[in-house]
Design brief:
40% of the residues lie in helices and 19% in strands. Helix 4 crosses helix 9, helix 4 crosses helix 10 and helix 5 crosses helix 6. The strands form 2 sheets. A 7-stranded mixed sheet has the order 7-6-5-8-9-11-10, with helices on both faces. Strands 2-1-3-4-12 form a 5-stranded parallel sheet, sandwiched between helices. By secondary structure, the protein is α/β, with parallel strands linked by helices. The structure holds NADP nicotinamide-adenine-dinucleotide phosphate. NADP nicotinamide-adenine-dinucleotide phosphate binds next to helix 5 and helix 9.
């Protein structure tokens, strides 16, 4: 029986990355739909849960993607609410690589430095990766702040995290690199989660900040998110601080994403979201 992955994307076009990793993770075929909302999901889920018998359902799985974390969370709720009895299949949420990237990064950071009671600042934390990373740092016991160029967006992001995880980071407005430089003063951990190709900090903003133990950046496309560290850094020392760059994080992220897809096909009752994916990341880090 073929392993079928139903990819539901909240964006107008389904993610090529998620389709390719679906195959590399073990799916025999990936069926993708875009523009998915809770309002148009029912027939798609029916197609996934009514086509195979109870013992065969583990060969069907659902992956939820798209660039909007809140939309992804709503889709996950809609999918799981549609299940009943044995009429269910395993499902994974990973809007824009949010869970797999944040889990791979925070698991590697947590293995490198203790996080309990540390001050962690997530720069540009309003995107999917930053939202999940902020939540995972908080779950590790860190005191987390999250920046945005806009105060209201920072506050909305923190409310989203609180609604999902019961943990509220501190929202900070930081409109430019200098403001983000001010936001990291006194921090132990700096995590840059800005959009691709956007520099959030220059080296002079962090190199003399003696409290900073570790600095990580998710953006792989030049200019990198943090000046003075390399994309390939994986616990390298830069200016007496430990550094992780996007490729240093990305190796585990990709392995983790593939492993999650493989795990989906092991049974029909799994929901892989932040906690489950982070647990797996910790075993792989
Ligand atoms: N290393 C890996 O394996 C891996 C995997 C997946 C993703 N990524 C990378 O992880 C990063 C975060 O991904 P994401 O999807 O969460 O990002 P995103 O949603 O595209 O962007 C995150 C935030 O960046 C801020 N931003 C956008 N343009 C900006 C600008 N010109 N100046 C300053 N801030 C700006 C925005 O925050 P405000 O508007 O609120 O300020 C936005 O919410 C990206 O760089 C992505 O490429 C890496």
């Amino acid at each position: 029986m073929k392993k079928l992955l139903l990819l539901l994307d909240s964006d107008p076009v389904p993610s090529v990355y998620d389709i390719f990793v679906g195959y590399d993770g073990g799916a025999d075929h990936v069926v993708s739909y875009a523009g998915i909302t809770p309002g148009n999901i029912a027939a798609l889920i029916d197609g996934a849960i009514f086509t195979r018998g109870p013992s065969e359902k583990k060969h069907t799985a659902i992956f939820i993607g798209g660039a909007n974390m809140a939309a992804g969370e709503e889709l996950l709720t809609a999918v799981t609410k549609h299940f009943f009895g044995n009429f269910r299949v395993s499902v994974m949420l990973d809007s824009n690589g949010s869970n797999t990237t944040a889990a791979a990064a925070v698991a590697q950071i947590a293995k490198t430095v203790p996080l309990a009671s540390k001050k962690a600042v997530v720069l540009a934390g309003t995107g999917p990766v930053g939202l999940r990373a902020a939540a995972l740092f908080a779950k590790e016991g860190a005191q987390v702040s999250l920046t945005s160029r806009d105060k209201k967006r920072a506050a909305a992001a923190c409310r989203l995290i609180e609604a999902r995880f019961g943990i509220s980071p501190i929202p900070l407005e930081a409109i430019d690199n200098d403001a983000r430089g001010a936001a990291i003063r006194g921090a132990d951990i700096v995590f840059a989660a800005g959009a691709i190709g956007v520099e959030l900090l220059e080296e002079h903003h962090w190199r003399d900040e003696w409290t900073i133990e570790l600095i990580a950046d998710c953006n792989a496309q030049p200019p990198l998110g943090v000046g003075g560290i390399e994309a390939t850094d994986k616990g390298n020392t830069r200016q007496q601080k430990l550094a992780f760059g996007a490729l240093g994080i990305g190796g585990l992220k990709l392995k983790l994403h593939r492993a999650c897809i493989g795990q989906l096909f092991q049974s029909s009752d799994q929901v892989l979201d932040a906690e489950e994916i982070y647990s797996l990341a910790k075993t792989m880090a």
